[in-house]
Amino acid sequence: MPARSLSLHHVVKRYDNLQPAVDGVSLQIEPGEFVSFLGPSGSGKTTTLMMIAGFQQPTSGDIHLAGRTIDKMPAHARNIGVVFQNYALFPHMSVADNVGFPLRMRGLGKAEKHRKVGAALEMVGLGALAARKPAQLSGGQQQRVALARALVFEPDLILLDEPLGALDKNMREHMQVELKRIHRELGVTMVYVTHDQTEAMTMSDRIAVFNQGRIEQIAAPQDMYLRPATRFVASFIGDNNLISATALGAGRYSVAELGPLQACDLALADGSPVDLLLRPEMIRLAGDQPPCATLRIDSAVNYGDSVLAIGRVGATPLRVRIPGPQARDLRAGQEVPLHWHASDIHVIPAARA
Amino acid sequence: MNETSSLQGADGVPRPGGTTAAAGLLRALLKGPLPLYLPAALFLLAFFIVPLGYVVVMSLTEPRPGLGNFTALLGSRHFLMVLLQTLQTAALVTVCALLLGYPLAYVAAGPARRLGGVLLGVIALSFWTSFLVRTYAWMVIFGRQGPLSHWLASLGWRPPPSLLFTSTGATVAMTHAMVPFMVMAVYAVMKRIDERYVRAAQSLGAHPLRAFALVYLPLSLPGVVNGCTLVFITTLGFYVMPVLLGSPNQQMISGVIGDQIEQVLDFGAASAMSVILLLVVLALFWLYHRFVGLDRLWSR
């Protein structure tokens, strides 16, 4: 399948004269990339997707697919496969007719259509169900049919709008693996909208985090997890401790009631407000190392493989995740010495208000 | 409740012949939430089932017992013409109501919420206006000195035709009366069609017109069938409009039944006609039930 690039330049979508739904989104997606749009509902990610698909018109800005501008092109001429949230399989058509629909629209011959539909259904593992009606399929099977229908016509791009949202947890994890396999095998460019950070983390080449109509950050999952650009991204992805602090210079930061902390030096002006991100799993029990702080545990939640200790260092709330064996004896009310490396603290310059 | 069921359990012994079926029916009737449907059932029994039975009895006994009324009617060219005319008119009204109502319902169910609201409001307004008032309004509009005549005359049509007392006039008025029913039936189904179906069709390469024809139209068909059945069967029994607006020479069956009672005093023939009309309607309902399912006419 051909892999195409997609780029958006300062795309704005405004309804009436309210706060714009999409407020100047720019991004460049490479051919064959799997990019997730991650964000809370109302953050503009689905609106952006609908503009790429051609169901909504940008108020300003433009969209390029494989180098050509497509914003004036009607949806049916764009050659983009879309998988909708509730699949939108045509209920009055069989599975084969659903998957064959885009080929019928392109005037393919009967034999070729039959062959391609068969191959697409084979790809999603549903070859035996071609004659069924969508209502006779389980949610996971409907999802696969929707996927087969969106890729059978070799689109330049596949858009997926929270496609796994309606599935139960096991099915969802299974489909994530399937989707990645199909993406690998076809090499097609995919844009995936989700509000589930785990989904975005496990599947994407890159994630674009949306908030209030803007992209807060676009980066590879690991980068985004370790080095979030904003407080919003840090709090949206992964469990976290976000501690307000003030830069003291030379990589030292002062935290109210906790004293100075050492972290990497961002060469910020003295007195600049910052947020310090310390992931709960980066913190260890001090053992024989010098303790960085002492945690007073308010509650300990046992997950089996680990224990999440929630408590305070001074007045600063802190969450600490300790792997199973070391954590068995942690109880509420205990005071435990903690240790972390200065390099585990990620410094986020506080938002210019 | 417990008492009744234990009583029934005690005499659950099979008995010979029809008693078992009758007892079963009685048991089923008593078992349900009887107090809930009893008032309605009694009302229907007193004011619908009994009079209807009386009509059936009259058709078979007046003026003398036998099938005489029916053989006479089915042998009468005039009556068969009236029946055919009635079916034709009902079919025409149905088609016209569909042609007018479908696009209306489509827009009302569409994304333009305000426009949709206004359209539904206008339809409801005409629906709530008394039937008789609407009929007289059409009499004024169609009258020899009415606005329609003036308008046609100003276009150069002389002498302008009068639609009053013609079957065309009656058909127009009945269509007007039936459009709200059609719109409601179609709208109810259209409102449940997810816009994503049409979007999906377009994203798969279907021009908007093709997406409509291949996806939206088939999905709206249940509403069309509902609306057509409702309009067709209702129109079959129309009385006021065809009598007051229509041509005396091309009456619909209700008008003829009325004449038989009011002018000829032939209750036997009138009853037999009613029974035949009823049988036609039942036959249509049966067909509908066979192919679509009666419960879907009202539910969902």
CATH superfamily of the domain at 85-253 and 293-298 in chain B: MetI-like
> CATH first level of the largest domain in chain A: which class?
Alpha Beta
Unreliable stretches covering 5 or more consecutive residues of chain B: 1-17
Q: What are the secondary-structure elements of chain A, in order, as H or E?
A: EEEHEEEHHHEHEHEEHHEEEEEEEEHEE
CATH superfamily of the largest domain in chain A: P-loop containing nucleotide triphosphate hydrolases
Number of H/I helices of chain B: 15
Describe the structure.
The complex is a heterodimer of chains A (353) and B (300). By secondary structure, chain A is an alpha+beta fold. In chain A, 25% of the residues lie in helices and 32% in strands. Chain A folds into two domains: 6-233, P-loop containing nucleotide triphosphate hydrolases (Rossmann fold); 239-281 and 296-349, no CATH class. In chain A, the strands form four sheets. A six-stranded mixed β-sheet of chain A has the order 6-7-8-3-9-10, sandwiched between helices. Chain B is globular and about 70 Å long. Chain B is 78% helix and 0% strand. With 300 residues, chain B is mainly α. Residues 1-17 of chain B have low confidence and may be disordered. In chain B, helix 5 (77-108) crosses helix 9 (167-190) and helix 6 (113-128) packs across helix 9 (167-190). The interface between A and B is medium-sized, with 27 and 19 residues.
Short description:
The complex is a heterodimer of chains A (353) and B (300). Chain A has helices spanning 45-53, 95-105, 110-123, 139-151, 169-186, 197-203, 221-226, 231-236, 324-327, and strands spanning 6-13, 22-29, 34-38, 60-65, 68-69, 80-83, 157-161, 190-194, 206-211, 214-219, 242-249, 252-255, 259-262, 273-277, 284-285, 293-302, 306-313, 316-323, 335-339, 346-349. By secondary structure, chain A is an alpha+beta fold.
List keywords for this structure.
heterodimer, A: alpha+beta, Rossmann fold, six-stranded mixed β-sheet, five-stranded antiparallel β-sheet, 9 helices, 25% helix, B: 300 residues, MetI-like fold, 15 helices, 0% strand, ATP binding (chain A), P-loop_NTPase (chain A), transport (chain A), ABC transporter ATP-binding protein (chain A)
